[in-house]
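Lab notebook, bench 4. The sequencing result for the construct came back, and we need a structural model before the next group meeting so we can plan mutations. Quick request posted to the team channel:

Model the 3D structure of this chain.
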Amino acid sequence: MSAAEHIHEEDHGHHHKETFMTKYIFSQDHKMISKQYLITGLFMGIIGIAMSLMFRLQLAWPEKSFGIFEVLLGKWAPDGVMDPNVYLALVTIHGTIMVFFVLTAGLSGTFSNLLIPLQIGARDMASGLLNMISFWLFFLSSVIMIASLFVEAGPAAAGWTIYPPLSALPQAQPGSGLGMTLWLVSMAIFIASSLIGSLNYIVTIINLRTQGMTMTRMPLTIWAFFVTAILGVLSFPVLLSAALLLIMDRLMGTSFYLSDIIVGGEMLTNHGGSPILYQHLFWFLGHPEVYIVLLPALGLSSEIIATNARKPIFGYKAMIGSILAIGFLSFIVWGHHMFVTGMNPFLGSVFVFTTLLIAIPSAVKVFNYLTTLWKGSLVLTPAMLFAIGLVSTFITGGVTGIILADSALDIMLHDTYFVVAHFHIV
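Done. Here's the predicted structure in token form:
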């Protein structure tokens, strides 16, 4: 027997046999974990889309009775017409599921796990155990969010942003009771999952690149996942603090967000809090969150467009610079969600300026995509068609974003369907 064969046999001797549980359920393999994220994300996506179809049906025909509502919603849809409380609850849970559970965990969890080790030449993620824990916390938070739908008083119903005082006072409406508490618990667990996952992605990219794979040789997909993970680590703790303060206002009698509130003709004892504080904390996560959703999609499109145009991406370093610029600027624009809160007009003008600035790196990406396509030998695979579609919708969404970035226009358009259309297009 040759030495090579002997070593080969020795190697086989040390392989532990994988059971069904260790291979498919509590797996530490990045490819299997990415599939787990994908399946969970798709399941949550189907629920989110089903909710959307239901409330859009009712919105299209407000007075019409739908038998399916009575079957699915029971007491919440007497005679097949949606109760206003459950309409708000469906909008709330739909928004939460789509933004966090599908577009954040579903997208980043699936593709970061699948592609990071493969594209940087690592054997696996830095910590398989943390990767597994990250997924199962996500799964647990998904289960709690779905369970909140079956609470007797109904699920959380204060819009997906969960603004107080509606969310801080259990007596405010049916959807402010146990369903709201479950929403907050689910999100706290989700944030823990997101933080563990993001730290794992960052460490893997910094420490486990193969020999010769410098930072400026990494695929743009990996750059996008890297910056996305950094955004998550820096912004999600702020949402966690907002949620914890809200839990304390609800359950422990504190007044972080509550002051001078009258419910049913009775003045509450809460004094000195401000619901605007919650908005600052929420949107400090909420705007980086938009780019946590968007950057992985842009990174994947960079790779797809370059591959199917049969030429390298145009302006590789400019693309890295634009990803970094978008990441940095996303932290100093959150006030554009709050132009109608009575903020100082000068402060508003600062947020207008920083928000318009973010259009520059976004435009750099669009022009580089178009220049990569220009005179390329295009192969119009389904992936390529979707990627080109992304560039188109990104332009349309960006143009509506420029309109909303201007405080004078935004004050008129705030709380209208124009805003909803803007972020759905993006």
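Strands lie at 262-263, 266-267.
Will bring this to the meeting.
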